[in-house]
Write a structure and sequence with these properties.
The complex is a heterodimer of chains A (about 110) and B (about 180). Chain A is about 45% helix and about 10% strand. Chain A is mainly α and about 110 residues long. Chain A has a single domain, classed as Winged helix-like DNA-binding domain superfamily/Winged helix DNA-binding domain (Arc Repressor Mutant, subunit A, Orthogonal Bundle), CATH 1.10.10.10. Chain A has a three-stranded antiparallel beta sheet with strand order 1-3-2. In chain A, helix 1 packs across helix 4. The longest helix of chain A has 16 residues. Chain B is mainly alpha-helical and about 180 residues long. The longest helix of chain B has about 35 residues. The chains are: A mainly alpha (about 110), B mainly alpha (about 180).
């Protein structure tokens, strides 16, 4: 049996966010919420993204503003190479064992 | 005889039943006369000098779809007078300060700079984005709803952040 003990932990919400960011390359937080079909809630999204950023799964940058744009700049999020690796390992693990929740499509 | 505008509201203007208020709306939307104030209760005057006769005739077609000059004179005469602003258009609230301006102050007071930058600044930026979208569309009730929604989201975010911090403390406590 495969050894999954050294794979970093990934919650279902983190997996859903990573799946979207990998598929769409770069997204605003609001886009993640809208694209997740209710899997990701806006109230806890940025707490989760902040935690994922600390773990090194995602990185972010401020959007480029056009002259005359109003309001604070929004942030764009993307999966890091490490995040992609962790997600792929997690998806592999989820597919191989019934001990872990199977992945649900978020799109 | 039925006359209708090529552009503007899809309404028929019948010789015997021309509704002056609807006529003015049709003339404004067809850009035959300048747009008057849309706010409720505002009065404004329309006189014959404001009516672009060429545009008026070019917009009028009869029941068979043919351009017609019939009734143009009658419409010009009917359209003159003092009118009130649209009864259905609720005035947009005046923007005196950004929505939920207290959120940033509260977040900076309670949480670290890093948390504010990572968790609350994106939420405030989303709020400004959605809010300005709703204002641009003139959706007054959505503007009000967003103010309440983001206040609630701030509360949820603050609670989730506090719980997250407690989990870290608990993990450190257990390992120690």
């Amino acid at each position: 049996m495969a050894d999954f003990s050294n794979i970093p932990r990934l919650s279902a919400k983190e997996a859903a966010i990573l799946e979207l960011l990998i598929a769409r390359h770069e997204m605003y937080g609001l886009e993640v919420v809208r694209a997740s079909n209710g899997h990701v809630k806006q109230g806890t999204l940025y707490v989760t993204l902040n935690r994922m950023s600390e773990k090194g799964y995602v990185e972010s940058r401020q959007e480029e503003r056009s002259p005359g744009a109003i309001g604070p700049p929004r942030r764009l999020y993307r999966a890091t190479g490490y995040g992609v690796m962790v997600f792929e390992a997690w998806a592999d693990m989820a597919a191989r064992t019934s001990l872990f929740p199977s992945m649900e499509p978020t799109r | 005889m039925t006359i209708r505008f090529l552009r503007g509201p899809s309404q028929d203007l019948r010789r015997s039943t021309i509704d002056n208020t609807k006529l003015i709306e049709a003339l404004q939307q067809a850009e035959v006369i300048p747009l008057g104030p849309a706010t409720r209760g505002t009065r404004y005057r329309v006189d014959s000098s404001m009516i672009d006769n060429e545009k008026l005739i070019s917009h009028l077609v009869d029941a068979d779809g043919r351009r017609t000059e019939l009734l143009a004179q009658e419409i010009r005469e009917s359209a003159q007078g003092v009118y009130h602003g649209k009864q259905s258009a609720a005035p947009m609230p005046t923007i005196t300060h950004p929505p939920n301006g207290w959120m940033r102050v509260a977040a900076e007071f309670i949480f670290t700079k890093k948390t504010v930058r990572g968790v609350f600044e994106p939420l405030i930026a989303d709020q400004a984005y959605e809010w300005s979208e709703a204002v641009a569309e003139g959706r007054v009730w959505k503007v009000r709803w967003l103010t309440i929604k983001y206040a609630a989201l701030f509360g949820v975010g603050a609670l989730a952040q506090a719980l997250s911090a407690l989990k870290v403390i608990a993990a450190v406590w257990k390992s120690g």
